[in-house]
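STRUCTURE:
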């Protein structure tokens, strides 16, 4: 197994872990009767799961071994309604660095196909960090009236992400 394939298998665990964390965040907001925030993070969970499945498909297409690893339990207790978004932003920044490291591993290994595969994820992470940063700013500004955050998300969510049109194929199709 190539170094890139080993690192991509590790990233699959991180992506599934991120999906689990986003489900935990969504459940927190669901329990607080904040349906827009819950829906936002349920969508994020599905997106992270799909990222893992795109990586699985890449490894299958490359004839590499696929390892579906265990993931650590997500954080489920939050002291307030802002801390889950803060955690999500930290997670997105960490994943961005992991994706950049993968792109560099592909480049250093002379694997231009793998490097090109990672470019979509780099763009996706830029968008994820920007949108989560904006959500955190809104949450902090409206900390005393989280219902206005619900209104913000109702206005801002929806519409197709143009990056998704050029997304790599996911194993199992678009589930």
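SEQUENCE:
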């Amino acid at each position: 197994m190539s170094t890139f394939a080993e690192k991509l298998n590790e990233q699959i665990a991180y992506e599934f872990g991120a999906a689990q964390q986003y489900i935990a965040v969504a459940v927190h907001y669901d329990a607080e009767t904040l349906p827009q925030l819950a829906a936002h993070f349920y969508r994020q969970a599905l997106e992270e799961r799909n990222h893992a499945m795109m990586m699985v498909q890449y490894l299958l297409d490359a004839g590499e071994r696929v390892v579906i690893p265990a993931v650590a339990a997500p954080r489920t207790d939050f002291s307030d309604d802002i801390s889950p978004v803060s955690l999500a932003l930290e997670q997105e920044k960490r994943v961005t660095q992991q994706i950049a490291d993968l792109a560099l591993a592909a480049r250093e290994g002379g694997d231009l196909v793998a490097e090109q595969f990672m470019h979509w994820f780099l763009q996706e992470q830029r968008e994820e960090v920007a949108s989560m940063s904006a959500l955190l700013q809104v949450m902090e500004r409206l900390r005393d009236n989280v219902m206005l955050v619900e209104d913000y998300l109702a206005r801002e969510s929806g519409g197709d992400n143009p990056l998704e049109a050029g997304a790599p194929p996911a194993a199992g199709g678009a589930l």
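REMARK: The chain has one domain: 3-165.
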